[in-house]
Amino acid sequence: MPPADRQPVERFAPSPTGRLHLGHALSAILAHDAARAAGGRFLLRIEDLDAGRAREAFVAGIEADLAWLGLRWETPVLRQSARGAAYAAALARLDALGLLYPCVCTRAEIAAAAPQEGADETVYPGLCRGRDVSGAGRPAALRLAMDRAIDRLGGPDAIRALTFEECGAGPGGETGRMALDPEALIAQIGDVALGRKDGAASYHLAVVVDDAHQGVTCATRGEDLFASTPLHRLLQALLGLPTPRYRHHRLIRDAAGRRLAKRDDARALATLRAEGATPEDVRRLVGL
Ligand code: GLU
Asked: Which DSSP category does 144 fall into?
């Protein structure tokens, strides 16, 4: 918990893999306005870990869209592509605790062995657990041994005592203090990859390390990430990092009820802007 007298630090953390759409606008405006209302700081963080998909043109587009919305953020802007050493140190710490193992499985192998859908992706079926993969001649991801992580923190009862504060609302309207559920961590999240085969950190590791590094007191994001927040809380506990509050917000859907994706250019802020929409129109369209 951040001390009550601490200056609020809010952030918007987009991945530059497409143009911003209305869902991003909602995240950014909520975080920005909360910072301004509380005399706090508003940070922009560029989550460009995926070198294959991140594009410099999208970074410029994000900044242009946010400025057009009337938002102002602090500079310099933190980029995850420059934070490799911090992520490597966090991975080394987890490894020293005996909580990581290398995994050489392909997506197809995982899908074939694990029909079980988890919170966010297929739950890894543990194929490389306890297996010597050093001679596999394939790049390895680094996975968290979830049962060992739970033991390390004192077992299931200690996990249930770990909480985070939801000051927005989860997909089921969840709000207030949320406790972790050790069974759900195993069944829904499982042995997630924290280090990717290309050597980069996974989103889950990077977001936890960077929110702490930047002193973020409240993390604003779409409710699709609510299911991953217990994992983030667990990683904070393992790495001895502070826990921000979380403000999850509803997803903005298209006319057919589908959540917006970066490929939906029709709902891109740039498109709305070109069609003559104003920042006030955008606030109205996202229900603010
Ligand atoms: N970079 C993530 C995205 O673009 C958001 C991560 C977060 O806010 O925690 O969806």
From this structure: E
**Structural contact between residues 178 and 14, judged by C-beta atoms closer than 8 angstroms:** no
For 154-191, the pLDDT digits (tens) are: 999 999 999 999 999 999 999 999 999 999 999 999 99
Whether residue 14 has its Cβ less than 6 Å from ligand 1 = yes
Kindly indicate the confidence band of residue 258, based on its pLDDT and cuts at 50, 70 and 90.
confident
38 and 175 both lie in a single domain: no
The ligand 1 atom at the shortest distance from the C-alpha of residue 17 is 4
Alpha-helical regions (H) of 105-226: 107-113, 146-152, 156-160, 182-184, 203-213
Beta carbons of 6 and 244 less than 8 angstroms apart: no
Q: With contact defined as beta carbons under 8 Å apart, do 57 and 15 qualify?
A: no
Residue 260 in contact with ligand 1 by CB distance below 6 A: no
Domain span at 94: 84-251
- Same domain? 75 vs 90: no
pLDDT digits (tens, 9 = 90+) for 37-52: 999 999 999 999 999 9
Query: Same domain for 109 and 221?
Result: yes
Amino acid at 223: E
Q: Which residue has the tokens 């129109």?
A: 281
Q: CA 257: distance to chain centroid?
A: 23
- Number of structural domains in the chain: 2
